[in-house]
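All the exercises in this workshop are built on plain-text protein records. A learned vocabulary of local backbone shapes supplies the integers on the structure line. Once this layout is familiar, the rest of the handout is easier to follow. An example says more than a description, so a record of this kind follows:
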Amino acid sequence: MSLDLEEPTPDVSAVKKVRSNKKSFIEWAIVLIAAVLVSFTIRTYVLQTFLIPSRSMEPTLYPGNRILVNKLSVDFGTINIGDIVVFKAPPDVANICNDPVTDLVKRVIGVPGDALYTKGNTIYVNGKKLHQKWSIFRTMGPNAIKKMTVPAGQYFMMGDNHANSCDSRLWGTVPRSDIIGKAFLKMWPLSEWHWY
């Protein structure tokens, strides 16, 4: 006498559910990895946000403001007088300004070849008064610009709060290779959104 034992048949719906969950997990993992890679690429090569740490750019930017910086505008564009830029802090900043920051935000006042100096509270570029069409605290403070010519490949930076800014007047010009990007949007606080 032989006994035919039937092998249990697997529950087809349970198998499909396990496969579906596994496929869904893999799809979400791929989406997440792709999102992280795209975000990293954009932050490294295209756009980045920066927090304003000091009062040197008042009344344009205040401590706690966040700006969005376009990195491609430096790689493929031009840098002009009046642009607000973010750049790597020169080595002397830590000693001269007593500030350990790694990145600074300032306004471009002189481009390669420009002859600069100040007389009183007025900045002269190539012998003409610089008409600052942006908001500034005009008083120059104790740090004047002594007659100088901006070297090739270098830029002269100043904060809009002239009397309260540790800038190129103290630590010199900034090479183009150290400029990270141009600010084009004040994005925080939301009530103060402003395009540059």
About this structure: The chain has a mean pLDDT of 89. DSSP finds four helices and twelve strands in the chain.
